[in-house]
Specification:
The chain has 366 residues and is an alpha+beta fold. It has helices at 8-36, 95-99, 107-135, 153-157, 176-184, 236-262, 274-286, 289-307, 315-328, 334-360, and strands at 41-56, 62-76, 138-139, 164-168, 171-172, 191-197, 200-206, 209-214, 220-225, 231-232. Helices cover 48% and strands 19% of the residues. The chain is elongated.
Amino acid sequence: MEAVEPGILFTVTLFLLLLSILVFVHEWGHYIVARMFKTRVEVFSIGFGKEIFGWTDKSKTRWKISMVPLGGYVKFFGDANAISNPEKALAKMSPEDRDSCFHFKPIWQRMLIVAAGPVINFLFAILLFAGLFTINGQLVDEPLIGNVSEDGAAYQAGLQSGDRIFSYQGQEITTFQELRELVITSPGEELDFQVLRNGEEFSLTVVPAPTEIKDATGAVVIEGRLGIEGKIQHNVFSAVVRGTTFTYDVTLQFFEFFGRMFRGDVSLDEMGGPVKIAQITGQAGSQGVPSYIYIMALISINLGFINLLPIPLLDGGHLLFYSIEAIKGKPISVRAQELASMLGLAFVLGLLFVLTWNDLNLPGLS
């Protein structure tokens, strides 16, 4: 039976919801650290362009939802625009205004404020993964046994949760899917496994229970079943640990991917843009809340990683400017920052155009 593709309205709605949540989290990171350092925040916007609705809080921050829901920003007191280029009239500010102005804060405070956006995206991903692993358990790729049913063949043979089945009759088993396919195709047969438990290796014979299953056509077939899941259930502490290590592993994969891309091993044709991300989000949402949250966590890591790249306009570009300022002992000129921001904007828009072009050639879209 073929999977039903989610409708366009469903896909767009879930994509914009996901994007809005992640943008809010990212910008809230900037906002909360800025407030910790008594920096005045003039605007907190989800989206760009004309304001749809909003309100002003007691600290005079304007919270608003804007018309173009593809990003967001916080505007600090002293910013000339939404990308935090400084106003040209900073020198005329009164001492009182300077105390709450972002651009007169010490370099280390400005760097922490800027870095807080990407960092909180990573922390948010850890939180999402930890929640998933606590409630739903963690699916594993390796041939690691998670839950074991007490009335299944695995339990009767002595297999336990946490056992790793790494070999079958001298043939290496590297993934849970390989183990699953072997079991399914061997109903009633003796399977001699090599098992690793707490650092010790031993042999174990298991007989998959013959089980009647209806296939996609409705025909009854006999498949083997062990009564195991490739899923590990975590308590809150271990879920946070696994969420942290999983986020770290995914981040390393992004590093490796960009490294291959800059070496020319990966073509831009292999990369996707907003349309592809929306498509993936819709598909994940159609599979249920856990899949949607999982994709949200991955995209949160992606957002944090991309924003740390040293490209003017992004947070990483600002961190680069402040690093140069720390070395030189004086800030880069306003004109240089404006020019760098324009180049950064041209690069980002050009890349976005190429990726969107790739998306429009996706199967089902062309």
